[in-house]
Amino acid sequence: MQLTQDVAQRVTEAISRPSWKSADPTLFAMLLQKNADQNRKVVRWGIAAAVLSYICYGAFDWFLFPDLADRLILTRLTLGLTFLVLVELVARRGFAVTTLHYVAALAIVAGAIGWLLSALGTTHQEALSHFIIFGTVFILGANLFFNFRLWLSALSSATVTVAFASATLFVLQADFAIRLVLATYFANCLVLSLYLSWRLSMERYQTFLHALQAQIQEQVAIENGQKLIEIADTDPLTGLKNRRAITREFADLCREWATDNDEIGVILMDVDYFKRFNDRLGHQAGDDCLIELARAFDETAASNHAIAGRYGGEEFVVLCKVAGHDHLREVTHQFCRAVEDLKISHPDRDDKLDIVTISAGASLTRADQSIELRILLQEADRALYASKFSGRATFTIYDAQAIDQKRASQNLSELLKHAVSEGLVSVVYQPICDATSGQVLGHESLMRLRDFDGSVISPSVFIPVAEQTGGIEELGLWLIDRACGDMVEHGLGAVVSANVSVVQLKAPNFPLHITEILGRHGMAPHKLALEVTEGSDISLEAQAARSIEQLRALGVQIWLDDFGTGFAGLAWLRRFKFDVVKIDRSFLHDCQTVRGLSLLQDMVRLLRNLGHTVLVEGVETKEQQNLLQHMGIQSIQGFLTGRPVPIEEIKQARRELVA
After folding, report:
1. Residue 470: helix, strand or coil by DSSP?
2. For residues 636 and 650, what is the distance between their CA atoms, to the nearest angstrom?
3. What are phi and psi of 387, to 5 degrees?
4. Tens digits of per-residue pLDDT, 550-595?
5. What gap in Å lies between CA 308 and CA 321, rounded to an integer?
6. Model confidence pLDDT, tens digit, residues 386-397
7. Chain-centre distance of CA 552, in angstroms?
8. Is 35 exposed, middle or buried (0-12, 13-18, 19+ CB in 10 A)?
9. Residues 356, 292 contacting (CB under 8 angstroms)
């Protein structure tokens, strides 16, 4: 039962109202309606039991009043069976409970007075003076057994009392003292039973009020919880689902994917030249543009039974179930066309178009790969970048062998050659915190890259190209140099970490470059941690293994990143002593299932037995943090404790904290 605000206010007022005041008519009507079925049963079974008892009492009539026995028994049978049939008829015809109560009250009054009038003419007045006391059964029945409204109980029981008291005082042939005592007894039974009836009625009413109050509080709690979930899962600007919600929706799609023949498509979309749009028209116009695009995406997603969300900034993501590549191509095309149909003017583009468009990349689940959103997004991201290098305002379906993607990689490699000199690369820092106290222990440095037009290029796109072309060596050393400089100048905690690839570790002079950077900045080696991603078996790369040993000898910390996602994790743990092992975020997010939780616990237990310090990535909620605290995890990292931000924002936050 949904409870309105008016009902909630009435309940609050009714609970604080003195008990002697009348009940709220609306709430009392709700009580009667709530107990309608129960009251029907009470009346039907109560009348059946009363009629049976009423007729059985005819045996006393036979012994006590033999002169009127036939008439009295006939009266009992006639009245009892008549009202029993009448009550059943009213109940079966679906009349209101109030009508049923009227009939039951009439049955009590008629049964009592009908017998009394027949019995008063007996010659056995002494026996009658003893037996008449059983008239109180009718009074008690009217007041206590049938849950009548108080006025109906009072009216019916008072009628019976007046009849019996009057007959006792003015008709019964007995001593006056006996008649007075009997009349007083009837009156006393009336008062006492009415009081008990009133108390029981109030208790039922108060119990109902408190049950309503509890239901209201539960309903409010559920509504607030739903609002919090909605807020947590909704992008505040566009109203679309955010990353958190998209991740959960993907998990739901994966469960369905196991039972049907459809594939899961992931479409990543980026607004073309959006930075220029913002710079020319202002951020408010940019927000309005994103809201319009979100509305178009939501409508297009609904028509295709898909799920649209905002991935961040001017990037949007779509999850859809499709029959294959051709179907995915058609759905992606619909999203691109939906944006063009809006005809939002764009005043600053390099091409001949003068409206806002999007570039899109899409990827599809395949039988030969694991079903991971992270992998599909990386593939869609690469396809998206291929669309950008193909001239924008188009889309690309991911294909590892596609020519346009090779061309995009070639163009990106040219960009990477000038990234450092042109100032296209930057660094952001994400805090690493103590799982229990929340204290910042250090920071991880992360590289960011922008195109010449200012648009962001995802690390999942440019890092693989940089590794393939060898550009990662220059970019990696630039990142480490910048991180060490910021560490010394601004203090980033006990340690600052940077990711290094096998390509960097295989470079013969890599340890010497690290030594030179540390010496130039005057930084203690143990304050630098190099994170090696579990992507290939470096134990098979002799030079990479030597570099790790030399860096450890220098005092630099060596961390294992994304543990559990590669194929060489256990081999690495046997071969190298890592200062910290970072468990990949996917294992924490899988803890919603019993199997996922058990797997994470087993991983933590294994790493502890091997003597490694454990850090868990991807902590986004307080519940996840509490879980990790319970498991005894030392360090955590994720959006809950801090997002990656430039050093300027860290400095500003410190100034505000001091102020």
Report:
1. coil
2. 19
3. -65, -40
4. 999 999 999 998 887 765 567 777 777 889 999 888 888 888 788 8
5. 12
6. 888 777 888 999
7. 46
8. middle
9. no
| Angstrom distances, CA of residue 293 to CA of 289, 344, 349, 466 | 6, 9, 18, 33
| Res. 400: pLDDT tops 70 | no
Structure tokens at 397: 């379906």
DSSP 196-252: HHHHHHHHHHHHHHHHHHHHHHHHHHHHHHHHHHHHHHB-TTT-SB-HHHHHHHHHH
Whole-angstrom distance, CA of residue 140 vs CA of residue 540: 95
How large is the average pLDDT for residues 633-638? 92
Paired with 471 in beta bridges are none
Distance CA 26, CA 4 (A): 12
Q: How far apart are CA 56 and CA 122, in angstroms?
A: 20
Distance CA(338)–CA(346), nearest Å, equals 16
CB of 361 closer than 8 Å to CB of 267: yes
Q: Give tens-digit pLDDT for 538-549.
A: 555 678 888 999
Q: Which residue has the tokens 């919090």?
A: 228
Kindly give the pairing relationship between strand 495-500 and strand 528-533: parallel
Decide: 176 and 129 in contact? Cβ < 8 Å. no
Distance set, CA 595 to CA 100, 564, 600 (Å): 57, 15, 9
Query: How high is the pLDDT of residue 540?
Result: 54
Q: CA separation (Å) from 504 to 66, 465, 475, 500? A: 118, 14, 10, 6
Are the C-beta atoms of residues 183 and 151 closer than 8 Å to each other?
Answer: no
Q: Are 266 and 376 in contact (CB under 8 A)?
A: yes
What's the chain's Rg over C-alpha atoms? 42
Q: For residues 437 and 449, give the distance between their C-alpha atoms in angstroms, rounded to a whole number.
A: 34
Task: Return the structure tokens found at 451.
Answer: 């195109």
Q: Strand 395-397 vs strand 358-364: parallel, antiparallel, or unpaired?
A: parallel
How much is the pLDDT for 1? 47
- CA distance readout (Å), 80 to 16, 24, 62, 142: 44, 36, 17, 16
Tokens matching residue 508: 């013969």
pLDDT tens, 601-630? 988 998 888 888 999 999 988 999 999 999
157 contact partners, CB below 8 Å, separation of at least 6: 138, 139, 142, 143, 190, 193, 194
Q: Which uninterrupted H or E stretch holds 560?
A: strand 557-563
- Tokens 């009020």 correspond to what residue? 209
Higher per-residue pLDDT: 105 or 368:
105
